[in-house]
Amino acid sequence: MPVLGIDIGGSAIKAAVVDVDRGMLLEAPSEVETPQPATPGAVATVVARLVSDLDWQGRVGLGFPAVIREGVVGTAANIDKSWVGVDAVSLFCAATSRECVVLNDADAAGLAEMRFGAGRGNDATVLVLTLGTGIGSALFYRQQLFPNLELGSFPLNGMSAEEFAAASIRNKEKLSWEDWAARLNHFFNRIERLLSPEMMIIGGGVSQRSESFFPYLNTRARLVPAKLLNGAGIVGAACYTTIVDR
Ligand code: BGC
Description:
Nucleotidyltransferase, domain 5; alpha/beta; five-stranded mixed beta sheet
């Protein structure tokens, strides 16, 4: 069944029609820059334009970089603060005149990896981490999602884990792969003590360079790069329409 998946990020908004039974993009994603400031109204306008440019009439699943409870935005670590308290489902439904569901972006990427990617068939505790502008996290046990985990805000060295170790920090502070991996190790070792995952799936654009930093990481958990790469957020958001109503 085809469903439109949209991945809303800090720098880009990507959309593509997805075959949710096979976990595949049915076309190359359309990508537009995230408007700045990324206020609810501005983002909703861009999303509505994407839906109409793609001439999409069916359901829409959206991944959004914040805590989402029953469709309502709960946090704003890396997005415009005016999002907190906004009913994102109602906003996107009104803007697009389509049925929409909304979930956290890392939960979306995690769902896709568990169904169709590196976590397929794994019933143990699996932690999916997306390393990008921030750090997204999604926890699964027996393939069931524990939503809104937010390990990116875990306190580390007097700041949040994502301020210390996100992929964007490697670029900003011009860290070598080895120095950045040392920060990741610090973070991973702390969260392993809390959650004891059997497998950790590393996603985000940087997962395409796993050979550059995986050799420096030592986790007890099996460490694997994401398989769906940048498509995971779109695929997972589309699949979410088959799980919930909003
Ligand atoms: C947000 C998370 C999100 C992550 C990745 C963090 O700043 O708090 O909700 O999953 O970035 O986009």
